[in-house]
Amino acid sequence: MKKILFRILICVLVICVIASAGYGLGQLGFYCKGNGADYSVKKTETTDSPLKGKTVIFLGSSVTYGARSLGESFVDFLVKQDGIIAVKEAKSGTTLVDDKGNSYISRMKKIDAALKPDLFVCQLSTNDAVQGKPLGKVTASFDREKFDTHTVAGAIEYIISYAKDTWDCPVMFYTNTLFENTEYEDMIFLLREIQVKWHIGVIDLFNDKEMCKVSDEDLKLYMADAIHPTRAGYRDWWTPVIRERIILYLGLRTDLITGTIREK
Hints:
alpha/beta; 5-stranded parallel sheet; 9 helices
């Protein structure tokens, strides 16, 4: 009887381990069609790009990292396709708001200050919206020490000021594509206000009219969930637009057409 119970216990443990492993793989996006090998960075061809050799710092969380696309995001496709030199400082679950040791601000300060980047790109984190971080207000001040980094507004202003003073390079923010979250919409509205004050670039995928035209069929291929793209989503949907906006913002080409804003 004891042997039978022992075998049953072993079987239960094995099943639990397999189930746990399967769940973990699912969380990484292993079972998404859009994460197939054909969509990988490895299978992507290089192009003759005006971004070749440009050094770009990318600061963000799971979307910048590629948490549901096996660790491959638009950053990695820009490295492979365009030949950029990327500093990818991305950690899942982190926020702009500086109330934890792994916030955008705390991690940004660990990036080599001696770098000579051509551009600094920061993700407008969905985590701040999902976690209900306080929005705050844009101030009239340009003094970094006066920004309330426990609010989204203060954190964004701090990041911009620090990046400009430390690396003396252009600064851009990018948003997620459209998903249902009014708090995130408020953050984008705030970012637009900050853009006017600081003269930064903004890649607004959320409100881009052409990006919003994606079919339901393509959306299933492109997104692992409402927030995180798959490899296919990054490669074929996000990266071309991000590339275009960066090239335009850096003045490397002047014949590119920017996206229009969707009607609400």
